[in-house]
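One such given next:

>
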Amino acid sequence: MGATTAELIRSVQRTGGPPPARRKGINARLAWWAIMLAAAVLFTWDIQHSTYHAFYSETARSMTESWKGFLFGSFDPNNTITIDKLPGFLWPQALSARIFGFHSWALTLPQVIEGVLGVAVLHRAVRRWAGESAGLLAAGAFTLTPVVAGMFRTEVEDPAFTLCVLLAANATLRAAREARLRPLLMAGLWVGLGFQAKMLEAWAVLPALGLVYLVSAPSTLRRRLAHLGTAAAVCIAASASWMVLVALTPAQDRPFIDGTTDNSAFSQVIGYNFLNRFAGLGISAKATGSVSATTMAGTAPAPSGGEGRPAAMWAKMFGPSLASQVGWLYPVAALSVVCGLVWLRGRHRTDPLRAGFLLWGVWLALYFLVFSAGAVGAHTYYMGVVAVPLAALFGGGIVQFWRAWRRGDRARSWALPTAVVSTVAWSAFIATRYSFLPWLAPVATLVGAGGLLLLMLSRTTGERARSRIAVLGVGAVIVGMLLPSAAWASAVLDSKYGHSGMGAAGPVSTWHHHKRHRATARAATQGPAWGDGSPRATEPHKHTIRYSERTALTREEQRFLAAMRARQGHATFVFATTSWRSASPYILFAGAKVLPMGGFTGAAPTPTSAEFRNLIATGRLRYVVLGGAPTTPGRAAADWVRGHCTRMPHERFRVYDCSPTSAKK
């Protein structure tokens, strides 16, 4: 009894109310299950028709061929080169493919699970911070965000990363409430695991997590700093673990690290995957031992949303392609941060409600700045981590606004109608930028206006009817604010919009789809993909290629591979290609041991000319196929092959027979 009374007193002193009930009401339980069901449906719908994400899918296939490939994230089955990122996000996909067989849906399934878990963790974190109603609103808003519905059904790195930082936030809120070290250490571990999926982007959340614990944990400053230092050590150790493993492994016993010129995982992470993203600010990664290019081999640089144009760069998050995927709730989230921090400024330092607004507000601001300054291009799935604080602030803010409205607080009751009007107006503006669902803007406006009228009416009726009308009113305004986002998110249920490859939902994915086909058609009229290797055969402004409904090699490719395997003999490689794009279908659909060159960008110096000739001299490589996207090592190899090897007759492929004696010429 004493412990319970003490808990009640502490809770009232710190939050102004009783501790949250341990048992959910039946309505809350039903709402939670409904949200989880909606998430499962959106993330799994038509999963059997998931498309392969080229480069990632080949890597996942190669990772299933050997545990060495699994550990290092090898692009090819013979472990000559890694993927151009840390392989952590692909480990669940490779395990799934080992269990269920290599299918596109097996590669997508881990992202589905990560998404459902992410919704549940966000609900738990926001419930711990602002109560059950806020948790349900946040989970619902998160599920109905277009980029969330698209991202968690796509074979990319952000689903695993987003789940990890969500778990870190939940652990931090738990640690800050009682100044507990163990959950804070878990938060550091989760950020470190998120680093394995998304590298330094995971560290962008650390200032928000650290600040909340430093400001609000009920302990002495010295103890708080000691706890944060220990958690930081755990985070760094977990983050650097794979890079240290690579550094300690002799180069001849592991694949070459893609994205680098010095074969260093640290160069890949710091230079290639971090500094290169901020080229628009004049930052160069050339001195870090990394490849300076970030676009796919054989493609022109993709527009990243304003590099060289400061105004456009800092406004990209408000542009239609990103705002339509994540930005529907910008106004209410911004108002929630301001009101939450201002209204609660007189509370005790350890007040958990104010700490939550600080956490989500700093999180949102940091990633907003990172993506405004950094390259995003067509990668809409980057926005998944921005959807988290937006949804949390929506849930927590609406609950605070509703309480102020019901109390009739004249100094604060303006916040709810202001949030509704600004959010519905902004949503209508985004919706009208597209011809998609032309009824959406007027219906959302009508529902929002109707809800506001009901709220106003509740102020003029008797006590008995006031509560019911007010509840109907707040329900209507919530629907009005979420309807546009939900309509776009539900577009994934339409096969036309369900598999964008970039985590997008709605007509943005269709725009990307048509853009790819225009580029493909243009390349087809100017030169074949397997041809003279001319730059004319590239596909401009594409960062990846996808195989649509294709699930196997074409008959011509099958015959070619069978013929090459029949000639392989004791050679390690079936044949070599001058680009990973040329090797891609054979690795993806057949697990063939094909030697690619140049890595993702085509600029990685592997194999070197000496290594290439040594492979031929020792009989590990006999046949070389020229053509396709040009790469730096591919050009050097092609020049040597034309002068030393024998051209084999073939209608489509330019195949050369390079006997061991040819390397001695």
